[in-house]
Amino acid sequence: MSAREVTAKAKHLEMGLSDADVLEMYRYIVLARALDDRMWVLQRAGKAMFVISGPGHEGAQVGMMWPLDRKHDWFVPFYRSVAAVLVKGMSPAEILLSLLAKATDPSSGGRQMPAHYGHPRYKILSTSSPVGTQYPHAAGIAYAAKIRRTGEVVITSIGDGGTSQGDWHEALNFAAIHKVPCIFAVENNRYAISVPLNKQMAVPSIALRAQGYGMPGSSVDGNDVLECYRVTKEAYDRAKRGDGPTLIEFRVERLGSHSSDDQQERYRPKEEIEAARQRDPILTFGTYLRSVGLLDDAKDQQLRAEVQREIDEATDVAERAPDPDPATAARHVYYDPDPDNPVDPVWWRGDTDRRR
Ligand SMILES: Cc1ncc(C[n+]2csc(CCOP(=O)(O)OP(=O)(O)O)c2C)c(N)n1
Fold first, then answer.
1. pLDDT tens track for 264-313
2. What pLDDT is recorded for position 6?
3. Residue 138 in 3-state DSSP?
4. Which of 127, 245, 311, 327 could form a cystine bridge with 175, CB 3.0-4.6 A?
5. Which of 81, 131, 184, 268 to mutate to test the pocket of ligand 1 (most atoms within 8 A of CB)?
């Protein structure tokens, strides 16, 4: 039975999303969560040194990535962007290769900390550790896309605390002045590690700040996956038309601690943590899919079993992968021409005599 038969007004159909689309979106959310759980298990087992991930942010991330052309457009992630990089093309195995710092980790060959995602093939820009730097990077890529008339759109994301960084403000100002095709997402979980939102800003909404730079700003419930899609699609179409950037605040819940290095129970009230769990996007989106007849217990169990198998296989691949050769530790730190690497700038220019 399709959603159209159950109700003439299924919200996703009105938005132009098919039944297959919304089921795939749900699958990505469940996949990202299962991957997240596995990362924590690997860390607790002493196989990974650190975990920082996105439980609770998945619905907003899947909704915000869905309007993108996954091959053509750019994504500039942050450490919580697990679901987002999956939608953009990375596999669970690639994410686990980076968690375990393996030689074949596509993000950095095992050099970066976990959660510093990057992938040239999927146009995911490598993550830098200082919070906020992704915003000017995204504004710069979007400026280049505009000058080169490539038609690419850029999306980047950050947490609420990251909006206190100078980089964040400079990027928005520059992007609005030059009307670049960029979507600036903020995943507002109301905490920057243990620092609450009211110690980061004196305004009631991050979206309000857009006005100060001369771009539209929206605030959306990040557990309402379809709303996240709708608002981002509007911003995407605006960027495509050449009308410039948009700021979108996604109000999300952080369902765990900031990272494997802290304990949220020490700075968050129990009731708040419990209330956050009720707003889990797996629950909210699952409820929607059931209400339009696309999901039931049997289908949900089958999907979760398939996802679990995929995560088990990815774990095997990552655990069996070789560690990097210590002799190559400084590779990628300084410029090192590599004729076999298709993203090497020398290779691009065909300037091969400059190779060592
Ligand atoms: C410039 C800079 N300052 C501090 C840090 C350490 N740090 C890493 S994540 C983080 C909290 C960021 O909070 P927020 O932007 O709200 O995102 P969230 O982790 O809550 O998703 C901090 C302070 C850093 N990486 N870079």
1. 999 999 999 999 999 999 999 999 999 999 999 999 999 999 999 999 99
2. 55
3. helix
4. 245
5. 131
Query: Which of 103-107, 247-251, 332-336 has the lowest average pLDDT?
Result: 332-336
| Average pLDDT of span 3-27 | 86
Q: First CA to last CA across the chain, in angstroms?
A: 63
Name the E strands within 69-189: 74-76, 154-159, 182-188
Mean pLDDT of the chain, nearest integer: 93
DSSP codes, 15-54: TT--HHHHHHHHHHHHHHHHHHHHHHHHHHTTSSS-----
Q: How far is CA 162 from the centre of its chain?
A: 15
Ligand 1 center from residue 288 Cα (angstroms)? 33
DSSP, collapsed to helix, strand or coil, labels residue 329 as coil
Tokens of 132: 């906020």
What are the E-state strand segments in 67-122? 74-76
User: Would you please indicate which residues are annotated as catalytic (active-site) residues?
Assistant: 254, 258, 267
Over residues 47-84, the pLDDT tens digits come to: 999 999 999 999 999 999 999 999 999 999 999 999 99
The set of protein residues with a Cβ atom below 6 angstroms from ligand 1 is 80, 129-132, 158-162, 187, 189, 191-193, 258
CA distance 65 to 194: 28
Going from the C-alpha of 272 to that of each of 189, 220, 333, the distances in angstroms are: 12, 20, 43
pLDDT of 7 above 70: no
Q: How far is the CA of 165 from the centre of ligand 1 (A)?
A: 10
Q: What are phi and psi of 186, to 5 degrees?
A: -125, 120
